Amino acid sequence: MAREQLERNKRLSARNARGHRYLLQDSWSARAAATPATAKAVSPAPRAKGRPCYAYYRCVGSDAYRFAGGRICHNPQMRVDPLDAHVWDAVRATLEDPARVLNEWVRRAESDRVQVERRAQRDAAAQVSMATKN
Predict the structure, then answer these.
(1) Where would I find the beta strands (DSSP E) of the chain?
(2) pLDDT tier at 20 (50, 70, 90 boundaries)?
(3) What pLDDT is stored for residue 47 in this prediction?
(4) CB 100 within 8 A of CB 80
(5) Which residues contact 23 (CB under 8 A, 6 or more apart)?
(6) Which one is predicted more confidently, 11 or 89?
(7) What angle do CA 7, 14, 96 make, to 5 degrees?
(8) Which residues pair with 31 in a beta bridge?
(9) What is the pLDDT of residues 33-88, one digit of tens each?
(10) Could you tell me the residue range of the domain that residue 48 belongs to?
(11) Residue 70: which region, alpha, beta or left (left: phi > 0; alpha: psi -120 to 50)?
(12) Disulfide engineering: 35 pairs with which of 25, 60, 77, 127, CB 3.0-4.6 Å?
């Protein structure tokens, strides 16, 4: 039990959180480039006290130096703060409406049931096909 807790602590340690400081970092990709989006902090001037630092989500495919033929993604970068705020508003609205969560859960459960039934039908058809060949 102590060993499991140590492993859990390692995974959740703040030292390991350096790579994912932003909500949507590495969780989406630009369709054209099929490369992950990352977040980059940018300061409008050399870092000085009181100077704001802005962060942007941007596609890794927009970095020309990463690809021999130049950049493969031409999507614009997006500011982190308004996009994250929009996502959190949507999450909050979803959680404040239990019926919405329940309806989605039921929809997904039904979809899973249908997929299981289709898989069973395909398997049965394959067995019949194999039996008739022998």
Answers:
(1) 37-42, 54-59, 78-79
(2) low
(3) 59
(4) no
(5) 80, 84, 87, 88
(6) 89
(7) 95
(8) none
(9) 667 777 777 776 665 666 777 888 888 878 778 778 887 888 888 898 999 999 99
(10) 29-79
(11) left
(12) 60
In a domain, 71, yes or no: yes
Q: Which amino acid does the sequence have at 66?
A: R
113 vs 96, more confident:
96
Instruction: Please count the structural domains in the chain.
Output: 1
Task: Tell me whether residue 37 is in a domain.
Answer: yes
Rounded Cα distance, 30 and 85, in Å: 20
Residue 65: DSSP 8-state? G
- How far apart (Å, rounded) are the C-alpha atoms in residues 74 and 68? 16
Q: Rounded to the nearest 10 degrees, what angle do helices 98-133 and 80-95 cross at?
A: 90
- pLDDT for 104 beyond 70: yes
- For residue 50, tell me if it sits in a domain: yes
Domain assignment present for 51: yes
